[in-house]
Amino acid sequence: MLERALKSIPLGSQTFSKSITAYPEGVSPHFIKKGEGSHVWDVDGNEYIDFVNALASITLGYNDPDVTEAVKAQLEEGTIFSLPHEIEIKVAEKIIDMVPCAEMVRFGKNGSDATAGAIRLARAYTERDHVAVCGYHGWQDWYIGSTSRNLGVPSLVRGLTHSFPYNDLDSLWQLLNKYPDQIAAVIIEPMNSTEPNSEFLEGVKELTIKNGSILIFDETITGFRYANGGAQEYFGVIPDIAIFGKGMANGYPVSAVTGRAEIMKLMEEVFFSFTFGGETLSLAAALTTMTKLQQEPVVKTLWGQGRKIKKGVNSLIIKHDLENVLSTTGKDCWSFLIIKNTDIYSQWELKTLFLQEVFARGVLTLGTHNMSYAHSDEDISKLLRVYDEVFGVIKDVVEKKSLDKRLQTKPLVPLFKIR
């Protein structure tokens, strides 16, 4: 299947993180046939417990019956029309009900749509051009031009975006002073793998207020995962604008730009418009997903089950005496297994070995635990049993310097460095 795909699709996938840049060729599953709950099956019939969950876009579980039923019902009415559908209002009202900063809403189809729309909106509101970024914010020119993956982005565009390190308020202060009255927006993932220090998020907000810049939280992943109202609710720091995507519709393609009405009203003039912006199947999925978040202990379960994983993984790291090689970071609902460089092997060589071994044992992960409501205690027990075996393999390889004998493929190389 991969050989066939590579003839017609660059990298054989529509998404870098689903391609052979992330899944080492020859030891990975490359195409999934179906998913149900917390499990997926590849085209060869192999079953996996999935902790990637479509890059954290699956919050409830694959083929959630309530979401599927809502989409089927909407399909009977139609997917798109010549005028707006009532469901656009219902979903906008639901987001406003759940998200602290939300007063008005516009929809996109993926996170990159929403971040690009938010940046254009901030530039229009402030009448400024420059942007400060901290995190990953999508594929479009305004952001990706600031990374090593900037091929095809004009240099003039690249020069308008400036990155600063997470948890480093001084670096942001220096940027704001280097470009006085020129930075339209500071856009940041409120948290990724690293915990914010006690003053960071509030400090970023204070600096944007003093500078007259718009504070944008990119909650593509943290939204509807950290709390029903996102990381802004969890941390108690409210941005001017926030963007959402991924888990808001349990895997259906929809995203949202939301924020203060005073700013959002400019969307009447800012051109952020596309034919499928109000596509109804994804909005039906979003409405059902968010309603379920309010009515059932979804987020509480993500945290609780994820806590079991993080505690278990940390115990296994100690058991195998791998504290110098492995560690965990992130919140329980979205945690990371960190693989470190050793004196002998790079983190990418060891990560390739790790992936090779967990895939062979029926676990799908890229080193993160993107929890879903469907992950059971049995799933967690199997994950930890697999990790117990695989950590033993890693320990043996590091001690005996035997990676070349165990690795069955070429080591991965990083796509690009975000932070």
Briefly summarize what is shown.
The longest helix has 24 residues. This protein has 2 domains: 171 residues, Alpha-Beta Complex (Aspartate Aminotransferase, domain 1), CATH 3.90.1150; 231 residues, Aspartate Aminotransferase, domain 2, CATH 3.40.640. The protein is an alpha/beta fold and 419 residues long.
Please state the average pLDDT score. 96
The share of residues in helices is 40-55%
Report the count of strand segments: 14
Structural class by sheet pairing and helices: alpha/beta
Q: Sketch the topology as an H/E string, one letter per element.
A: HEEEHHHEHEHHEHEHEHEEHHHEEHEEHH
CATH class of the largest domain: Alpha Beta
Dominant shape: globular
Under CATH, the topology of the largest domain is which?
A: Aspartate Aminotransferase, domain 2
Task: Name the strands of the widest sheet in spatial order.
Answer: 4-10-9-8-7-5-6
Beta percentage is 15-25%
Architecture of the largest domain, according to CATH?
3-Layer(aba) Sandwich
Largest sheet report: 7 strands, mixed
End-to-end C-alpha gap: 34 Å
Describe the structure.
- By secondary structure, the chain is an alpha/beta fold.
- The chain is 41% helix and 15% strand.
- The strands form 3 sheets. The chain has a 7-stranded mixed β-sheet with strand order 4-10-9-8-7-5-6, with helices on both faces. Strands 1-2-3-13 form a 4-stranded mixed β-sheet. The protein has a 3-stranded antiparallel β-sheet with strand order 11-12-14.
- A hairpin with a 2-residue loop joins strand 1 (32-36) and strand 2 (39-42).
